[in-house]
Amino acid sequence: MNKSAISSRMAAFQKAATSSNTNNTDDANKNGMKSSVGKLSKSKISALNIPLGGGRQSHQQQHISSKVTIPTMSSSCGNTDDTNKNEAKKSVGKLSMSKINAINIPGMGGGPRGGTQQQHQQSRSSKENMKPKPGKTPPKINMTMAHNDHTSQGHTEMSEKAKATIVGPKRVGSEQENWDFLYELASQYDQYKLQEKEEMKNPIKQKSATPEKKPQVQGDKKSIKSSLEGLFGGGTSYTANGKFLTKEYFDPFILENTKFSTVTFDFSNEGTKLFKRFDRKDQEQRDISQKFVAALLSHPRASEITHLSMSNALLPDEFLVALSEQCLLAGSGGGGGGLPKLQVMNLESNLLGIDGLIAVSKCIADPNVWCRLQILKLENQKAELTSDAEETLGKAVVHSRSLVAVGLHVKGGIPKQQIDNTIKANVDILRQARRKHKLKTGSLKERKRNDMEQYFDKIVSNTDPSITDVDLTGNLKFIGLNATERIKSGSSFGTNTTVKSIKMVKLQLDDDFAVAFGKALITNSTLETVILDSNSFSGTGIQALLTGLGKNKAITNFQIRHQTKKINSSDEEVLPLLLKENTTVINLGIDARNQMIKMQLDRKTNENREYQRKQRNLNKK
């Protein structure tokens, strides 16, 4: 095809295209809309500058938006539909996040998930910081570590109130104790334990205030009347004026045990007939409680009562308040107050609360009231006792010289510690009172000494020449010795002439033993090897041992390593000076942390080796 034919055809094509553009405008618009709506490419979307939100556009985006215009729905040539279709095929479903982030949406602040660009930069930087970096891994957080922050842990440090709290009784000197009275308390407690043991083996049916019921006959009016009287008070008129509280009313509840010389006021399980009538907390309940206590304390045998048993009697706080007030009033004039011989108070399973416990605590803390009270039972109250009630009772028990048993579940740490420490101290002082009484009367019998004590008695007396090696590593019999016998065992080697080797390892030996054993080393002349590893010597004990070793002239091997207590640096500095006079020890084992001290001790043992070598050479000549 020549050039003229081609040019003619091109002219005809252009003419046909211009004519079709004017005749088919509607079709072109329709086709343009189909190809453009929903089919914008990535480059066109990024070029759009929509002034809707508060996001910022980059300089490059502003430059692109100034050059690119929004495409119209119509096309200017016949190839517009084809180009739009090709671009739509490439762009549908392929929008990148970087282009979408460039669109600012009002109210959302721009950027991914509605955050600002500054916030997203911070989040990216934090994520980068969280990524593991090469090198040493950072330390992990100890979730169980205790913190000293008061807001996160309120009980890490002791408060000033807790520091000032007395958690144990203050004892006076042995010369100021009333040992005769304490021995009476000890005898009284021994009788109580014997009585309790006998009652458990042979339970005795206690007398009841109400007579035994006879079998009822159907239709018997007297039986019906007696049943109604028992239901509403057993025939007694429980009036608010308290006229029924007479001597005859209390007599059936007072029981005497001649074998153990005890008098018990047993009012257990009787509250349903009396205090249930006055169960409302009002003036009437307070009045009946005060009148009940006054009538009880005025009974002819009130001063003989040793046991007050009122468990499960529905006792309110007002009863204990009245009892405390009247006993304190009677005790202010001397004579032991109300119920001067009271030993056991059983108030279990009642309605007592903080007011009742505070009232009892006042009497316990007063040395002139209930000075013989030893057993106090307060468990199983209807309402749970508060922490204030426990603290009040704990402070009162600390001042008691007689209590040896308190039946109460205490949750507070300090009140529980106060009660436990007081009971232990009182039990121990009763033991001392028994011993002093036996010494006074000459009835004290020396106990038989056990095998371990007899073993050291032989060492002291040198009566058994076969004992040349003492090896007590982890011996339980030695660990069971009391402090006095342990000190005696350390002193026993001072006069011994047969033992050559001692190995006392893992025996929990303390500084008191070290002081006694150090003094024994000064006079001992037969020991050659001493091994006291794995004990509880501190710097004081080690100084005492090396003081004796420095003056000893026979020991060649001395080991005191692996102690549970550390040596202070000031104590270590003295050790080489203590061995200045020693010329025999050549093997010395001490866990000194100061390298200079270690070098000085090693130099001392080397000097002793050289000295002994020279002595051997002189002896050969």
Write up this protein:
- It is found in: Cytoplasm, Cytoskeleton.
- Keywords: Coiled coil, Cytoplasm, Cytoskeleton.
- One of its GO terms (molecular function) is tropomyosin binding.
- InterPro entries: LRR_dom_sf, TMOD.
- By secondary structure, the chain is mainly alpha-helical.
- It folds into three domains: 104 residues, no CATH class; 231 residues, Ribonuclease Inhibitor (Leucine-rich repeat, LRR (right-handed beta-alpha superhelix), Alpha-Beta Horseshoe); 170 residues, Leucine-rich repeat, LRR (right-handed beta-alpha superhelix).
- The protein contains 23 helices and eleven strands.
- The chain has a six-stranded mixed sheet with strand order 1-2-3-4-5-6, with no helix packed on it. A five-stranded parallel sheet has the order 7-8-9-10-11.
- Strand 2, helix 12 and strand 3 form a beta-alpha-beta unit.
- Helix 2 runs parallel beside helix 5, helix 14 packs parallel to helix 15 and helix 20 runs parallel beside helix 21.
End-to-end gap: 141 Å
Strand neighbour order, sheet with most strands: 1-2-3-4-5-6
Largest sheet: 6 strands, mixed
The CATH superfamily of the largest domain is identified as Ribonuclease Inhibitor
The count of DSSP E runs of length 2 or more, i.e. the number of strands, is 11
Q: Which blocks of ≥5 consecutive residues have pLDDT under 50?
A: 30-40, 50-78, 107-114, 143-158, 206-213
> How many alpha or pi helices?
23
CATH topology of the largest domain: Leucine-rich repeat, LRR (right-handed beta-alpha superhelix)
Task: Give the helix level as a range of percent.
Answer: 40-55%
Strand residue content: 5-15%
CATH secondary-structure class of the largest domain: Alpha Beta
- Radius of gyration from the CA trace? 49 Å
Main location: cytoplasm
Biased composition (Low complexity): 15-26
Protein name: RNI-like protein
Biased composition (Polar residues): 57-81
